[in-house]
Amino acid sequence: MNVRNLAVSALQAAKFTARRTRASPFSPGIVAGTIVARHASSSADRETLAKSAELLDALVGSTTGLNLSDIPYGEPVPQASQTSGQSTSPTLPSSTVDDPLAQMFIPPANDPLLDYLTSALLKNGRRAKAARLVSRTLLHIHTSTRAPPLPIVREAILTASPAVKLGSHKYGTKSLQVPYALTEKQRIHAGVKAVLAASESRPGKSVDIRLARELIGVLQGESKAIVEKERLHKLAMVNRGNVGLRR
Amino acid sequence: MVHIANVKVRPRKVTTPVPCRSELVAMLGCWAATGDVLSTDPNRCKMVAETLFQCMRTAPVAGKPHKPAINYHLSKLSKKAK
Q1: Structural domain tally of chain B?
Q2: Which residues, in sequence order, are CB contacts of A19 under 8 Å at separation 6+?
């Protein structure tokens, strides 16, 4: 299943991150949509790990490949059945202030942005291949940066997305360029298109390596996609008198 | 009495209303004033761009306006002019 591939690869990336970032003072509030691993020292953390194991069971199907107690952070994690007085189904605690689960972000099974990227890479109906490319792109980003790849992808595509579009309207004999605002979906579509086009000029033998390099390059400020975006925005700025033109 | 066989006019061109027009104009004006065309600087145009994005998220979908049917009505009148 494509979902499983993506979820498993993301989990593997997170496991890799967990092993690398031991005592990193991660602020979970900043990085949304990723698994944040912290030093599992308190009983609340152990409860969180137990609850997340149950949720992962539901999401992925089985956690036999991912042993949460393998993370070398000291005391072993007790099984879900051994936690005192807890029911088998995960229940939400009454207060959100003491809720350990609120500090731990567990991504959904399908990320809409990754689905969008998969659709953009789709050719001849081969969705499994496209999903594999996206999975490997995330892996390449993680190996280059040692950071969670999903926020990097999100930030890069948003940085490369233009905010306006120029429509050509004929008024009499003249053809004028009129700037229009774009919805979020239109912006993402344009950003993904720009990133994929710019990634063709990157070094690398396969699409996933080139795409990973391009996404990192966008965040570093060196990308053809950003140059194109700047050109478009300048054109819109010059034609700002044509907004909502009626004749 | 003047006999006009077929009365037709060229009706005014109807344009779809632009959503979030004021926010768009504000952002384009900010770009022209500061030069922060990519809207990355929080002191310059980043907040203005965010306002536009938020407006686009919540703006109602503008349907296409009704095309003017003036020629239909005129064609009805032209029979009476005989």
Answers
A1: 1
A2: A71, A72
Q: Which residue of A has its CA nearest to B25?
A: A240
A-chain residues within 8 Å CB-CB of B19? 181
CB distance A180–B27 less than 8 Å?
Answer: no
pTM for the predicted model, two decimal places: 0.61
Contacts with A78 (C-beta within 8 Å, 6 or more apart), sequence order: A46, A50
ipTM metric: 0.72
Taking CB atoms and an 8 Å limit, are B24 and A164 in contact across chains?
Answer: yes
Q: In this structure, which topology does domain A113-164+182-222 adopt according to CATH?
A: Ribosomal Protein S7 (1.10.455)
Say how far apart CA A226 and CA A158 lie, in whole Å.
Answer: 11
For chain B, say whether A94 makes contact (Cβ under 8 Å): no
**Does residue B75 fall inside a structural domain?**
no
Cα nearest neighbour of B18 on chain A: A244
The reported pLDDT for the residue numbered A67 is 54
Report residue A40 as tokens.
């599992």
Mean pLDDT computed over A54-83: 54
Domain extent, residue B24, equals 18-60
Q: Please give the Cα distance from B49 to B34 (Å, whole number).
A: 13
In a domain, B8, yes or no: no
| Residue B27 within any structural domain of the chain | yes
Q: Which residues pair with A164 in a beta bridge?
A: A181
